[in-house]
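We store amino acids, tokens; thus:
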Amino acid sequence: MTDQDFRRRLDEAAAATQATLDALLAPSPLEGEIARPARLLEAMRYVALGGGKRLRPFLALESARLFGVCGESAARAAAAIEMIHCYSLAHDDLPAMDDDDLRRGRPTAHKAFDEATAILAGDGLLTYAFDVLADPATHADPLIRARLVLALARAAGLGGMVGGQALDLEAEKAAAPLTQEETLRLQAMKTGALLRVCVDFGAILGGASAEVAAALGRYGDALGAAFQIADDILDAEGDEAALGKRAGKDAERNKATLIGLLGLEKARARRDALVETAVAALADAKLGEATATLAEAARFVALRSS
């Protein structure tokens, strides 16, 4: 797969996700809803439709494609993951958390609206993600829907993303730096879990065997770890205009990173080794050339500039 082919697929997935989110965040209430307050909906749309690479829904869509699953089921499942990701950004940017004023080249939600509205917009997206997955429109089989809901809840909650954010905040105030093992666990929870569940979604929707699902899971774990190291490198070296957010904040806030523990050179080497681990895991899945796009995604994650 050429870089041009990969970026075309990435752009197509982003456009499809944008269209799905736009439709889901329409002003008309759904059955069982009373009303959709205009300002809250505007803030939710601001957070969810504000651009970005849409890497997570891309991974979900491409993983589902491995098993011939396309269309509404994959699109809605991918959009649900992106709602979780976008809600987490709105909350992470709050003054009580990372206190950022810029996200994707625009004012963060609490700056564009206010803190209370940013919190509620995040709450709305978080809740709506599970609404989308539980809706029969996502899949006719209630067992599949239940598995999707459970997988995302585990990845996004106490033992995953939210728990990782809590550990991250604790580490900023810790008397001693985290060990490498503690840092890896934090990053696997805060960042890696939501990236891993993207490929888990593909396996669930596609009815993958336990062996294939496990191989895809190893791919997701390695990709998530590589993504976090690449993100830390960008924060240390990246250009704020290209990033669309403030650079250098990890060092300012005493964030636990592998760069701080290993240095840039060793961190880059670890990132590259994780990419190779991810690609090898895809080979273990024995799905042939169908996994070429996901292999390229692992390389893209490591070498991205924003």
Remarks:
- The chain has a mean pLDDT of 94.
- Residues 111 and 262 are 35 Å apart (CA to CA).
